[in-house]
Specification:
alpha/beta; Rossmann fold; 6-stranded mixed sheet; 4-stranded parallel sheet; 10 strands; 16% strand; binds pyridoxal-5'-phosphate
Amino acid sequence: MSFFKEIFSKNIRLNIPLLENKGHEIFMKREDLIHPIISGNKFRKLKYNIKEIKNKKLKLVTFGGAFSNHLLAVAYISKIEKIKAIGIVRGEELHNFKLNPTLKKCIDYGMKLKFVSRDEYRLRHEKKYLEKLISKHSNAYIIPEGGTNEFGVKGCEEILNSNDIDYFDTICVPVGSGGTISGIINSSSSKQKILGFSSLKKSNIRVQINKFVNKNNYKIIDENYFGGYAKFNSQLVDFINEFYYNHEIKLDPIYNSKMIFRILNDLRSNKWNYGKKILLINTGGLQSIDGFNKRLKEKKCATIDFTF
Ligand SMILES: *Cc1c(COP(=O)(O)O)cnc(C)c1O
């Protein structure tokens, strides 16, 4: 049987009395429970890409930063599916240090890592650079950073089911490279509002999303609360720990915790201008906690109380 079977994640209702009293219903789609390593949206984005690679019997080349959930997911599935995988990692200097938990696991799963300078990494979307890579690695198949391409978006169109499309007026989803939200936009109804919570302080992610989507019922909210990608403060760490105690749900520190912090904050302070029937897509990503806690310890900050 194929690893990529059909999956419909369950929705659970979050019990937050203050918001229920105001007439809000908040549900969470547990995409985080799909698989411990290929969590949430990475499972969705890789499904049709891996099918294509296996059909064509190709090698795989992909890109990621040092803590990338995507790199780890690709490394893991490549081991299962016996695909040769090469990961191009941002930052030459990483080579010289002890590898972080994410990259160590990638190597354990058999991925070959190639560390490149930030300047070279910037070329990752350029046609010429990609053509060179493809020929260098004997006709390799390239999966873009974050797994966002036509096949990746197609997989993410399978996240919402027909009840979700009928029932909710607002759907919230974290955004990195834009593939997940694109799939959700495509499968949503035009009456629904899709809110994308970017992990970046400022980005031109709309340009990327607009390449894939068939309607415009979405809005991007930048990460201007904690200072940008993978930035944090003690408030965020406290929130993650508190959420775990209140709901027994582990949130990742880069995407989902920031999105949910922001939503609950806006709802509580009456700054929420969107609907009342709200679905949060929990995209998983818990593997990043080990590396994150390491950084917190080095800075002598309080850590996240759980591991993944
Ligand atoms: C990669 C990732 C995202 C971003 O998804 P995109 O499709 O790149 O926008 C969100 N959440 C988690 C946990 C991720 O690992």
